[in-house]
Amino acid sequence: MYNLTDYVKALSENTTFSDFIAEKKLTPNEKKKREEIAKAIEKENPDMPMDKKMAIATAQAKKVAEEKDQDYKEFFKSALKKFGVSEPDQLEGKKKKEFYDYVDANWKAKKETD
């Protein structure tokens, strides 16, 4: 992990803090999706360099995962609204259990592994 001194030094060298942040590792589902996308690219464009193919496939796999996350966040937010709160911590006891039971019963992922 980098400290503030490293960050200040980076700024003075005309770089950004993002240069210090490690890229998020792909989840197993994202890796699987990346491989599916890479195979599809290979079929369509067999002459594309491998590094370019994998960069495109990785970016697309991350985008798909982010869209799924966003869908769930929107569903969760609507469930909170239905229960009249903005955070689950505002619910207590039976109401909190009822809320999570509602979420479990009503969230429909596209695949069971999602």
Structure report:
With 114 residues, the protein is mainly α. The protein has one domain (25-106). Helix content is 64%, strand content 0%. It has four helices and no strands. It has helices at residues 4-12, 28-44, 50-82, 93-106. Helix 2 crosses helix 3.
SSE arrangement:
Blueprint: H1 4-12, H2 28-44, H3 50-82, H4 93-106
Helix pairs in contact: 2-3
Quaternary structure: single chain
Strand share of the residues?
A: under 5%
**What shape does the CA trace take?**
elongated
- Unreliable spans are none
> What integer value in Å does the Rg equal?
21 Å
Main β sheet profile: none
Please give the count of helices.
Answer: 4
> How many independent structural domains?
1
pLDDT average, as an integer? Answer: 81
Number of strands: 0
Considering DSSP H and I runs of 4 or more, what fraction of the residues is helical?
Answer: 55-70%
Distance between the termini: 31 Å
Structural class: mainly alpha
Write down the secondary-structure element order: HHHH
Q: What are the defining features of this structure?
A:
elongated, mainly alpha, 4 helices
Please summarize what this structure is.
The two termini are 31 Å apart. 64% of the residues lie in helices and 0% in strands. It has 114 residues and is mainly α.
